[in-house]
């Protein structure tokens, strides 16, 4: 006896899940009766949970004497489904009462094997637990959006649906589009692009196929239509797909949101109402981050910084500040503290509907890309504006400018969120809105992670606004000028950096005096620019002054003192004073290691500087050991494409050259040259150096005759063409290195 709906005629693939269910529910004992087995299929609405359950029931119908289907959308639908069971002939033969309790008792009394399917159980486990037959017999399959249902089945006895595989998705799209026969290569390619754009979500793929079948577009121009009218396509009432609940893609998620909104409005249960309100706020903010790796720390750090601020003092500065538009409720602050319990109660509501999911770490969350898009699409314009502003403010105030290694790591993870948030804001506001506090924080993160062009754009705006609103000699204006000068120096724009640094230095000397820490900071920055320009004498003069004054003011072990000592050592090395350089660099490395730890960027810089001196001295083994360590730790901390990581790889390549380790050398030279060209640009001095090194290596290895053009001996694009052809087209091994 099978009492259930039929699966869709369009059901496609999903064999791995069907096989898993068949294995789990397989009858295993000698009597042909297995003990109670309970399994959960959970995931986002539209993933095909119901259809997999229906298909499974059809394929194993010969194994069960009874298959019962219960619509568990709410308690009323459960009662109606169980009442329907009481009307089947076997139940009538025993004069079964139509009450829920009687039907469940009758099911437990059955001597033959039965399967009971609870579909669409989207509440908490304790509610559905009341409807489970009481004995230890029979099999139960549950479909739900709520991962908490795992408490009923066990964490091993469940499947989380993330979407179809690409092949099944293409097959479903072609079947739904009536294009299964005569599939050409263009159709196949178009199908693959559509399925990928819909992230293999079964209901979305089904709905796309229905739209194509209707004749409103072809399979070739669907994506163009989708990019322009995503909301209309995903929520069009005429194309509801195969869902038994007759919902569009957006409609099925809207059901979840309506439930949350209903909870939020329920004054009879204030605790649940507050959790639901918090969930809505969090979800709307998350929509304006990147959809992956959304950290709880973004919210907690921003709240903690807000609590510590002197808002009145900040408001008197006369600068446009985002923080002045925030309030404690938006930041989940209760009784002067960030309310972790309140925040996590909101997260739990979102998790219970699979609107977000946990990452590998408990405090990191992800949103399905299509849910991420839907959340923005469902908002009114003013809601998008407010939520994107809140997201921007949280990102900005989660930034802490310190030497702590945890802040470096955290800022590295923020870059993607900052870039996507700025893109959303520009799209929503159609103009750049200036907030001094946010621009400073975002520029700091972008600069720290090597995104110098984006940092420069923000820093120029900060400097100009502060000059306009505060005056050109205001300390905050000088700070903004110093930041911009540092970016110019990193970009190899030394003349522009020097001009700004000289101005900052002179004004600080006038305003603060020659021994003020900020004055010494500007002297040190100018000295670094002189060193980059090859002005060794000018650099040495400033560096000696800075080092001596910092030792007096800050002490010999202060990070700023160690920085000035390291800079002094660099000048000594370039002047050929290798013994003096090594002595200083050993001292800097040891003290930095004690002060900041072995993986801090400043420690890695000191190790790299000492390794370069070893290399200049011909101590290849000592240099290689340090350089390998610096490169590996930089890759872990900063990422493989950070300019500092590429510098560490270039330094190691120099050592390999001197050691004659040609195979290792080639790998590094190709990687550094190509990545620097992508990230820094063709004309950056570091890119030029790495291209020149690669050209020299190719000439040495393959005897390529590439001549230099121009009196300045600078590599031009025409010099690069033979190298491009040889490295990127002529050598498959070289191509493999850069995938």
Automatic annotation (TrEMBL):
Domain NB-ARC: from-to ranges: 39-175
Top-rank lineage group of the source organism: Eukaryota
GO terms of molecular function: ADP binding; hydrolase activity
Entry-linked InterPro entries: NB-ARC, NLR-like, P-loop_NTPase, TPR-like_helical_dom_sf
Family annotation (SUPFAM superfamilies): P-loop containing nucleoside triphosphate hydrolases, TPR-like
Keywords: Hydrolase
Keyword Hydrolase belongs to the record: yes
Keyword Hydrolase: yes
PANTHER family named in the record: AAA+ ATPASE DOMAIN-CONTAINING PROTEIN-RELATED, ATP/GTP-BINDING PROTEIN-RELATED
Protein name per the record: P-loop containing nucleoside triphosphate hydrolase protein
């Amino acid at each position: 006896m099978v009492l259930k709906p039929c699966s869709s005629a369009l059901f496609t693939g999903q064999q791995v899940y069907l096989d898993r269910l068949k294995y789990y529910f397989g009858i295993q004992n000698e009597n042909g009766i297995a003990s109670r087995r309970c399994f959960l299929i959970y995931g986002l609405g539209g993933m095909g949970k119901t259809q997999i359950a229906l298909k499974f029931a059809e394929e194993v119908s010969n194994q069960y004497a009874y298959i019962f289907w219960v619509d568990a959308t709410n308690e009323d639908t459960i009662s109606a489904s169980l009442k329907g069971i009481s009307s089947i002939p076997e139940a009538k033969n025993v004069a079964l009462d139509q009450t829920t309790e009687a039907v469940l008792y009758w099911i437990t009394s059955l001597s033959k094997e039965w399967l009971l399917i609870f579909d669409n159980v989207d509440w908490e486990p304790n509610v559905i637990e009341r409807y489970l037959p009481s004995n230890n017999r029979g099999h139960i399959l549950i479909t739900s959006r709520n991962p908490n249902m795992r408490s009923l089945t066990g964490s091993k006895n469940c499947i989380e649906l993330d979407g179809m595989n690409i092949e099944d998705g293409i097959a479903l799209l072609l079947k739904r589009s009536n294009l299964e026969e005569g599939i050409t290569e263009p159709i196949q390619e178009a199908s693959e692009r559509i399925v990928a754009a819909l992230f293999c979500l079964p209901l979305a793929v089904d709905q796309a196929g229905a739209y194509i079948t209707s004749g409103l577009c072809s399979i070739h121009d669907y994506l163009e239509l989708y990019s322009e009218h995503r909301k209309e396509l995903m929520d069009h009432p005429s194309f509801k797909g195969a869902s038994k609940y007759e919902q569009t893609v957006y409609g099925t998620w809207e059901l979840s949101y309506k439930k949350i909104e209903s909870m939020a409005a329920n004054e009879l249960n204030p605790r649940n109402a507050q959790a639901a309100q918090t969930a809505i706020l969090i979800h709307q903010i998350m929509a304006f981050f990147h959809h992956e790796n959304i950290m709880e720390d973004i919210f907690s750090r921003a709240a903690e910084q807000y609590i510590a601020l002197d808002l009145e003092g900040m408001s008197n500065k006369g600068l446009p500040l985002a923080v002045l538009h925030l309030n404690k409720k938006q930041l989940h602050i209760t009784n002067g503290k960030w309310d972790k319990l309140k925040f996590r109660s909101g997260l739990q509501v979102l998790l219970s509907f699979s609107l977000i999911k946990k990452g590998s770490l408990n405090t990191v969350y992800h949103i399905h890309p299509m849910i991420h898009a839907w959340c923005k699409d469902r908002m009114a314009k003013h809601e998008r504006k407010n939520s994107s502003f809140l997201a921007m403010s949280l990102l900005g105030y989660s930034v802490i400018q310190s030497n702590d290694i945890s802040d470096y790591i955290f800022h590295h993870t923020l870059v993607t969120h900052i870039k996507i948030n700025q893109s959303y804001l520009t799209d929503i506001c159609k103009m750049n809105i200036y907030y001094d506090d946010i621009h400073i924080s975002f520029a700091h993160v972008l600069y720290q992670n090597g995104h110098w062009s984006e940092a420069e754009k923000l820093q120029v705006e900060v400097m100009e606004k502060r000059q306009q609103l505060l005056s050109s000699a205001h300390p905050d204006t000088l700070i903004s000028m110093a930041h911009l000068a540092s970016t110019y120096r990193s970009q190899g724009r030394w003349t522009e950096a020097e001009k700004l640094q000289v101005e900052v230095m002179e004004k600080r000397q006038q305003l603060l005096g020659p021994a003020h820490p900020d004055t010494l900071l500007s002297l040190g920055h100018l000295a670094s620019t002189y060193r980059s320009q090859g002005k060794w004498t000018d650099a040495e003069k400033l560096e000696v002054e800075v080092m001596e004054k910092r030792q007096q003011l800050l002490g010999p072990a202060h990070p700023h003192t160690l920085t000035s000592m390291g800079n002094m050592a660099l000048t000594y090395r370039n002047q050929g004073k290798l013994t003096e350089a090594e002595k200083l660099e050993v001292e800097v490395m040891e003290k930095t290691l004690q002060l900041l730890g072995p993986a801090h960027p400043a420690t890695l810089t000191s190790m790299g500087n000492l390794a370069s001196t070893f290399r200049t001295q011909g101590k290849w083994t000592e240099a290689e050991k340090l350089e390998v360590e610096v490169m590996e730790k930089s890759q872990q901390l900063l990422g493989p494409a950070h300019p500092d990581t590429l510098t560490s790889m270039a330094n190691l390549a120099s050592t390999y050259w001197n050691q004659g380790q040609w195979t290792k050398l080639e790998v590094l030279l190709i990687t550094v040259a190509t990545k620097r060209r992508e990230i820094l640009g063709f004309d950056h001095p570091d890119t030029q150096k790495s291209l020149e090194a690669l050209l020299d290596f190719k000439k040495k290895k393959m005897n390529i005759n590439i001549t230099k053009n121009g009196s300045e001996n600078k590599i031009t694009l025409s010099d690069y063409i033979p190298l491009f052809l040889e490295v990127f087209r002529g050598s498959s091994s070289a191509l493999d290195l850069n995938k």
